[in-house]
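Quick one:
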Amino acid sequence: MSIRLIATDLDGTLLRNDLSVSPRTRRALDAARAAGIHVVPVTARQPHGVRMIAGQAGFGEYALCGNGAHGVHLGTGETLFEVHVTEAAQRSIARALSERVPGVLFVSVRDGGTTFVAQRGYADLAHFEDHKRWPHEMGAAELEAVLAAPSLKFIVRHPTLTPRELLPELSALKLPGFAVTHSGAPFLEVLAEGVSKAWGLAKLCGLLDIDASEVLAFGDAPNDAEMLAWAGRGVAMGNADEEVRAAADELTLTNDEDGVAAVLERLIG
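Output:
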């Protein structure tokens, strides 16, 4: 079956390490679109973070943001779907994890990704690259304000523990009602129960009447693994984590070597 949709992660996958889209990659994406193939960014970023590189990549159609929790049309601004972490789930995580791992901090991303409610002290740990936001713009809310509304993405961060170290601490609590992943950024990303990049991609493909076998997907980080396994053809980058390589059907070059373009050039000719 032919490819009708290309789903690609951004950071560490489509983008080079300097966050640019190379001319070679842009040519390959344009060729795919000219062939009638949907090219969809599937990213942990919120829509404002996708729009920062949309001009470089030629994105003007569908995008899956927040690790699949939020489907949008970049051209029209239409929200296709969005699903939130409940207040109850957030409160149970914050209460139990704070007791188990003192010093943990939280952020609620709301309102289509436009509202960023960071707990006091979080901005001191953050850099622009983490959320495509400047730390001085993040604010300093009390925890109750962070937990006061459902989140498209609920962020969990510790000053010294890495996401790989923090994840088993959260998992050990055996709390219900949410999903959790990490993307290579220095924090865990909590999503609504059942949500992943694979979930969001399946939902978009259902709206477009596209079968999983007609999807080509690219990724590099743990939050990409389920998507690569779901797609008819999953491609791991040369710089991908081992669990992503294990989920993929094939391996390409690194993001700095234009690995996405290398595959698309063979596909489209």
